Structures are given as C-alpha cells and as structure tokens.
Amino acid sequence: MTTTQAFRFALDPNDAQLAGLRRHAGAARFVYNWGLGFVKAALAQRDAEQSYGLAGDALTVVPWTLPALRLRWNQVKNDVAPWWGECSKEAFSAGLDQLARALKNFSDSKNGKRGGRRVGFPRFKKRGKARDSFRYTTGAYGPAGDLHVRLPRIGRVKVHEPMGALTGRLAEGRGRLLGATGSRTAGRWFVSFTVQAEREVPEAPSPRQRAGGPVGVDAGVKHLAVLSTGEQVDNPKPLARSQRKLRKASRAYSRSKPGSAGRRQRAARLGKIHAHVANQRRDGLNKLTTRLATNHDVVVVEDLHVAGMVRNRRLARAVADTGMAEIRRQLDYKTRWYGSRLHIANRWYPSSKTCSGCGWRNPSLTLSDRTFHCQSCHLVIDRDTNAAVNLRNLVAASTSETHNARGADHKTPLAGPVAVKREPGTAAAGQTRGAPPQGEAA
Ligand SMILES: [Zn+2]
Q1: What is the pLDDT of residues 359-395, one digit of tens each?
Q2: Can you give the residue ranges of every domain in the chain?
Q3: Is 384 a catalytic site residue?
C-alpha cells in the first residue's frame, strides 16, 4: 500500500541561513496577505458593481483559485515586491497555495460541502502571531548527506540529528520526496519532509497479535494511558520534570505585566517548554501505539468530541483528551501497517459510567471520581481501567462481527458516530477501522 510519511528534523542554521529561513517564511506570509487583500478588494468592487446593476461577464473577476492568484501575482510582483528575487519562487507559491485552500475551505463550508466546524473567511497573517512556514515542492531541495539539508536560496543547513531513517529509505528507492516544509516552533526551525513510500502490509493478524486479543485504551490523567489489561502506562520520565517547569513558567508568565518586555520573554520561554513537553509526550505515545498495534489484533479507542474537547477547561482532562486524539491518529495508520485493526467506539457509549463487570450504569459519576464503585455487583476498579475494559468488551463480545468488517474503506474520512444502542453483553457499537484496504496495495 502507498503511504505518506513525514520526517521532521530540527535545524541548526548559521546566521545567514537563519535570515534566509525568516525571509522565506516572511515571503510566504507577505504573498498570502497580498493575495487576501487583492481578493477582498475584488469582492468589494463586485459588490459595488452589482449594486448599480451590472451582472454576468461585466462583473469584476475575483481571483479565487491558485492559478488565478498566481497569474495576478506574476503580473504585479515587480511593483509590490521588487525584492522577490531574493527568495525561492516556491515560498510565494506556498503562500498563494495556502490562501487558495483557505478560500476553498471557506466557500465549501459556506455551501455545506464541508462538514465540521464552520470555516470563516481567511484573515490577514500577523507577523509574530501567525505560524512561520514555507514549503518547497519542486526544485533541488532534499537531504545532502545524513547531516545537512539543501534548501534552495537558503543553503546547505545542518540538521540537529542524523537523518539516517530518511536517507536510507531514499537511497534504497523505498520512498519518494513529495515536499519539504520549513517552519518555526517555539524559536526553533524545523524541516519536515513528506515522503511517499510503499509498504508491505500483512493480510491478517499474526499469531502474536491473535494471542494478544483485543485491547481497550483510555488516555489517563496521571498516566500516559490505561489499558484494559490493567496496565497503567507511565508518562515518559523526563516529562514529569518538564511539566513541573511548565507550571513554574506559566505562573511566572501570568504574574508578568501585560505588554512588558518581561512578558514577551516569559511567553517565549513558556512556548519553548510547551513544545518540549509535547515532543516528549509524542515520543511516549509513539512507543505505546507501536506496541499496541503489534501485540493485539484489535485496538479499541473512544471516539472524541473534538469540538467539545477544546472547550474543556480542566487542564488535566484536556491534556488526556489531546493524548487520546494523538493515540487515535497514530493507531489509525499503525494498525494498517501491522495488520491489526482499530475499532472506534460510538461517541455516546458511556465507557466511564458503565460497570465493566455487570453493565450497571452510574449516571452521577463525575470527573473527580477516580474509582468506580459498582452498586450492583460491588466491583471496585480504577476509573480509567474500567473504561478501557468496557472498550475492549465492545469487540470481545462480537469478535465474529468485527472480523467481517475487514476490508472497510479507509479512504472515507472519519464519519460521525454510528448510532447503535448496546445492551450489556450484546453486539458492539461503533465503527471498525484499520483493516488493510483491499486492492489498494500496489
Ligand atoms: Zn457491576
């Protein structure tokens, strides 16, 4: 099967290269804002024309697509950005491409062609506020040996750690570069290569995965995750230390005076630690999801109410929910790689409130109840473990049914919940994903 993978590396640029990275990100932002201004002006012009009775071909054309935007840009770039030659033309393409996508998302959302949250009209990117990034899709970009990357018009930039995983794959012809994105996170520059690769995908679960059986996973608050096996997967050790630093930095930030130089400094420090914590958590989750996908034939996770999740004010729970979203994202492709399956429970299935022993429900369970006490069968169990066992039981109760779901179409985007009511001990509710797509393999 054909997959796309991202390989991301931190950069150690020299001063001239750093200036080049900033200049390219600035160029992408500049052209985005220029294009947006142009579109807005054309829309206003059109409104005015309509108001005095013009219609059809007589109306101003609004450059809404990438080719239209590019055409206009090439007509005016000598006037609006005489410095354009200092940057790779890819940076301008990337900025216009971003704008064209933002415009399309807006119109698709408005016309009901796009689900999810309503997408607003694109806004101007403010320097320092917007994420700095630019992209190459053509030209002589790529790794130069294991320790450098070649970025046209910027130079041969040193990477922070060797890129063996990527360069090995490319050298053996097991991957093709699709593009490279330079971006800045918390004061540090990264390059991320998108690589298209062919992957051998097992047809069926291995004996080891079958022996492991299904497993339910719940993202913990104190732990990285809690499994239906009873295992509580600890956070990576360095993470606890960084989290203490994070709390300290965030207190220092909130004490500083709005608008002061000290506040900007503290915000930068806070951002840096945040990025570090997110990296450590992602590393821990990567190890966990590989283990789950290779040791079990079905992995069951909860569906997430993503919009509601972001609004959750309780920090601890919000962190766990973000963890769950990442676990699910990783399992979605890893189960496909390793021949296991991902089963996503119905969004409305009350995994925390249901007794994993007898099916009794405790509707009054609150977020602060860390232990589940069953008033029917008197089971006393850790709240997250109980939820994980309930998730596993969703497929354990109907193994034959989920096996029939093999070959589901994975190209369909994550759909809404399948509304199936589940009585204790009957068939599973929800969707199954993760079977290798039939006929997709090359
Ligand atoms: Zn019970």
Answers
A1: 999 988 887 788 999 999 999 999 999 999 999 999 8
A2: 2-15+132-198, 16-110, 207-234+276-433
A3: yes
